[in-house]
């Protein structure tokens, strides 16, 4: 079975038991001085206007099922006014196939921002400075995402483990890209040091993609045919820092570029907590994947639930707009 399909199947079997988001508390306000209906979730991220500070994170493309999944996600993004990212476009660049990774995506997504995606490991191998522009053109993308996933690759039987020259390749790829470039992890997180390196390389934004949600080490361990790798995957289960912890380390308000928070977001309250910790935008993957398999309307229901809960968090903290949430963070009492 192909790798991207196995990722979908195995990700759907994972569940979040405890969450670092539960250690974060927002300040309750018993005296909101506005009408709940006046809460305004609209947000700006880079040059994009969004109906809420939410995007659908990179997941799929290239498998037979991907056309349907990306159609559901893109149509839901259009209906809900949020951004959508596709999964790695490597498979279409390698000429294997294009399912869900062609210009049909623009028809489904309408005016919603579309973000393309590729791994830095692939960029190192291809050594083709212009390829981000080609990938963007294939799906009419508004920005490109490069994912960093060394701890995913090492658990693949034939993963890309030669990352020599990665820092230079990152800077060169960004320099030649005509669109803004966002750097993300895949669920193990970007440390404050790596975020600084991304800023120096010219990134327009970073997506922290911390641990606490989809666990790629476990997924790759389950897919491996090699006992040595399967056992190592158990040893390293839970590797990486949680999204709230990384946000606290990164101090987004002090950075020159916006920070997207993702990794383990379960609901609209988690989204509010990410924004209270300085994130400009949040991204969801695992929480919308079951709906993405079913229908556009199921995806819309998930996003509407997130938006409603984010609005309630604004109401409960006395904020008419999520951008006011950063003053409402309080450490959980011990
Ligand atoms: C089925 C699946 C496939 C994924 N494929 C990609 C990918 O191709 N590129 C990428 O950057 N991230 C990929 N991710 C990682 C997500 O974008 C996200 O960073 C990670 O799942 C953490 O978010 P979550 O906890 O909300 O799932 C994938 C996630 C899932 C669930």
Report on this model:
The chain has helices at residues 3-13, 66-80, 90-93, 104-109, 120-126, 131-139, 150-153, 166-176, 192-201, 216-223, 227-235, 243-250, 268-276, 289-294, 296-317, and strands at residues 24-26, 43-45, 48-50, 54-56, 83-85, 114-119, 143-147, 181-184, 205-207, 259-262, 281-284, 329-331. It has 334 residues and is α/β, with parallel strands linked by helices. The chain has a single domain (3-331), classed as TIM Barrel, CATH 3.20.20. The strands form three sheets. An eight-stranded parallel β-barrel has the order 4-5-6-7-8-9-10-11, surrounded by five helices. Strands 1-12 form a two-stranded antiparallel ribbon. It has a two-stranded antiparallel sheet with strand order 2-3. Strand 4, helix 2 (66-80) and strand 5 form a beta-alpha-beta unit. Helix 1 (3-13) crosses helix 10, helix 10 (216-223) runs antiparallel to helix 11 and helix 13 (268-276) packs across helix 15. The protein is globular, with a radius of gyration of 19 Å. The protein starts with a helix and ends with a strand. The mean pLDDT is 95. Residues 7-8, 11, 57-60, 87-88, 117, 147, 184, 186-187, 209, 213-214, 262-265, 284-287, 289 line the site of flavin mononucleotide.
The number of domains: 1
CATH architecture: Alpha-Beta Barrel
What structural category arises from helix and sheet content? alpha/beta
Spatial ordering of strands, largest sheet:
4-5-6-7-8-9-10-11
CATH class: Alpha Beta
Alpha plus pi helix count: 15
Distance between the termini: 48 Å
Helicity level: 40-55%
| CATH 4th-level superfamily | Aldolase class I
Mean pLDDT: 95
Q: Classify the fold: give the CATH topology.
A: TIM Barrel
Which percent band covers the strand fraction?
A: 5-15%
Mass-distribution shape: globular
Tally of strands: 12
Main beta sheet strand tally, sense and closure: 8 strands, parallel, barrel
Cα-atom radius of gyration: 19 Å
